[in-house]
Amino acid sequence: MITNPGDIPAFIKILKKQPFHYFTGLNTLFNTLLQSPLINSVDFSHLKVTLAGGMATQQSIANDWKKLTGCTVIEVTECAPMVSVNFPFNNSIGLPLPSTDIRLVLENGLIVEN
Cis peptide leading into 9, omega within 30 of 0? Predict the structure, then answer.
């Protein structure tokens, strides 16, 4: 848990302390980290899962994150409870999780059919 993700130098210092396997963030955090020259000093070799939520992830940022870390961004569509995951990243709401039924309804009330 990072108490102040806005302090990028301190954040990166924490990331460098020990190997990590999971990384959760949002588009603005990924973008800010990618813009920092300090990010190249972080060892991402143990990273297995990157989750993005809170807002849509821009395709270019997801691509840059994968280039840097070797890890594909999995975009989580947030609801209570979690409904779907977007893996591999393809700029959609993703697929429903097991035992989850989803119905997409347009603003005009029409149901989107498969």
Answer: no
